[in-house]
Amino acid sequence: MTSLWRGRVLAFLGVILVAFSLRSAVASLSPILTEIDADLGVPSWVAGLIGAAPPVCFAVFGVITPILERRFGLQRLAVAAMVVAGAALLGRALAPDAGILLIATTVLFAAISIGNVVLPPLIKTYFPDRVGTMTAVYSTMLAVAAFVPPLVAVPIADTAGWRFSLGLWSVFAVLAVIPWLVTLRRSRIAAASADAVIAPTPSPNVLSRLVRLPMAWAVAVTFAVSASSVYASFAWLPIILVDLAGVSHAAAGSLLALFGAMGLPWSILVPLVITRWQRLGPIYAVAASAGLVAVAGLLIAPGSAVVLWVVLLGTPQMLFPAALVFIQRKTRTHEGTVALSGFAQSIGYAVAAVFPISFALLHEVTGDWTAPLMMVGVLMLAAIPAGIVVTRPHTIEDEWEQRHGAW
């Protein structure tokens, strides 16, 4: 078996640095928004747009990125995304007013959205024999990058100011440019070699084909279930726990941290379970069952085992690394991988952008949390048919050929 390191150290470092940059840029703003507001005066509508920007940008650029990839290629697009992200991070830190802060944040999330889409195909291109291992590394770095910035952002802001606290994360984006620049240069030099790692240019009509394929929709639903439950929980779980379980606000914050930490072990385990033991069905069964039990517990006996309910509610996060693996394993061609990555993330984040808002509106209309929590239960049920489809042993290309002829 090919060594994980032979000829691929730069790609390995590139994956780690890009993955860390993707989430640290998102997670480093909200903890110090109060300090920024005290200095710049951030209106509530601007804060609301900043909060809504990530899933909206992720959904929009999930569609646009495959088009850009056809024009520029994976490596160049990864370099461009990190250059723009680094510049936007600095622009956000130097923003003289709330308007520039919003613009820089939107540009930043657009760049991050492109990075989200290109990383799974890059992993498949450079590590086709280690998809599970590298997806575990990738998703674990995402989890770490979502966990670390909130811990250090406020202390750094208190010591060195909020601008420094925001701007320091640009270092990782700039560092992420270096290995992909060198890799791109080496790929060009070795273009004539038979073993050069050069991704072919995808066909322009691949993305449109996915709308007609159940496998593509199953991966998109998998992504949507995980992303929607996470966004809704981060927005509303503390309030739900205070209202239903009677916990203090401090305890609710700690329980939300526990919910977020649940993503870390699944990021390590799930890719390995899928790639080494081919166990797809149990992942969906555990995720959906845990989510449904958590909803039932919060509705029936919220205060009796609140920690257990939070742990179970965090368990469906295992579907996120599962979707990342499926993007690579349920495709046979490079163009299919890029298209499925864009399609699944676009659909998933579009649902995730709407879900917390619908959650809040339902609570506003009904006056309690029963209907919103039942909506989460329905979301978990959606994972069941998706799980049935992804267990089929074929790719999106196979599915298209069975239904419509040559890919």
TrEMBL record:
The chain crosses the membrane at residues 45-65, 77-94, 100-123, 135-156, 162-182, 215-239, 251-274, 281-300, 306-327, 339-363, 369-390. Its main location: membrane. The keyword Lipoprotein does not apply. It is found in: Cell membrane. The lineage of its organism: Bacteria, Bacillati, Actinomycetota, Actinomycetes, Micrococcales. SUPFAM superfamilies: MFS general substrate transporter (SSF103473). This is CP family cyanate transporter-like MFS transporter. It is a multi-pass membrane protein. Residues 7-394 form the Major facilitator superfamily (MFS) profile domain. It comes from the Bacteria. Gene3D superfamilies: MFS general substrate transporter like domains. Keywords: Membrane, Transmembrane, Transmembrane helix.
